[in-house]
Amino acid sequence: MRGIVLLRQDFIRFAPTLQLRQASAVSQQDIKSAFSYCVEQVRTYDYDNYVWLLQLKQELRAALFAIRCFNVETGLVGETVKETGLLPIRMQWWKDAVNSVYRDKPVKHPVIQALAQVQAIHPLTRYRLQRLISTREEDLVGMHRMGSIAALEKYAEGTSSQLLYLQAEAAEIKDSELDHATSHLGKAVGISQLLRGTVYHAQRRRVYLPIDLMVREGVTEDQLNRGEPSPELNNVIYEVASAAKAHLDEARAMQQKVPKEAKALMLPSVACGLYLDALQNNAFDVFSQNMLKGAYSPFWHQLQVKRHYLLGTY
């Protein structure tokens, strides 16, 4: 409920501009409902990002909830569409829906309605939205196979990094150093999220660990799917986590070069760092009880987000 209340506060600031730009077929109530839907979806399916979004200024918060909800919705396609043959059709629907925003005729879907309002005020690059969809589609059609760490980095760049770029566009911040830091942070966040989902994916017979590392260590997909921990699997996790940590360190090393007003947009680094630290503390065993219980305390995450926000760091 708190998220919905905050959204209404956001809307007070956001609405005057939206009202000037809204299509005649879209009422203010429709717009309110669309943004409320976005907040609730992010709170439900992407709570770590929900936490840091609440720290942002009201005039930016609503726009970023819309962008983050777009990520949630496209990410849920693989969970909700059970027939493989229907996946390209559903992803094409999202591609067409994004195009409808740029034709000023957004389809009647709350996320698309919200994105249309954001796009009218803070122009977003269509390519970034479309690349996120295409990256997810390639993953789903490719049956979740990642051949190497380079493949993981490509996936993360096509998803998490694109979201961070879009956030900067919504905040109207253009800076080459920010772009560089964003690319690294996106890779770190994207890879760590895949690591965090290892057990969940294994239960559904999906593997997002690099095949070349699994072959090198003698880890089979069947072992992973059965939930069998092993030192060899921990070695694979270590290699992947090290790649994520290297990108996170690189992004954080650029803090002094990133514009002050952009640092709050980099707060996804907090959950990423906490997870990677937890992995190290648990010997890179994703099946350990501590990791299965969530890796770190949600309250501690909230405190760390607030601390970084107040200090202007990430």
Describe what you observe in this structure.
The protein is an all-alpha fold. The chain is 72% helix and 0% strand. It has 17 helices and no strands. The chain has helices spanning 2-21, 28-45, 47-53, 58-75, 77-80, 87-102, 110-121, 126-141, 149-170, 176-196, 198-203, 211-217, 221-225, 231-253, 268-281, 289-292, 298-311.
Please state the CA-atom Rg, rounded to the nearest Å: 19 Å
Beta-strand residue fraction: under 5%
> Biggest β-sheet, characterized?
none
Question: How large is the count of helical segments?
Answer: 17
Low-confidence stretches: 1-24
Structural class: mainly alpha
SSE blueprint and pairings:
Elements: H1 2-21, H2 28-45, H3 47-53, H4 58-75, H5 77-80, H6 87-102, H7 110-121, H8 126-141, H9 149-170, H10 176-196, H11 198-203, H12 211-217, H13 221-225, H14 231-253, H15 268-281, H16 289-292, H17 298-311
Helix pairs in contact: 1-2, 1-4, 2-3, 2-4, 2-7, 4-7, 4-9, 6-7, 6-8, 8-9, 9-10, 10-14, 10-15, 14-15
Quick tags:
disordered N terminus; single chain; globular; 72% helix; mainly alpha; 314 residues
Short description:
The chain is an all-alpha fold.
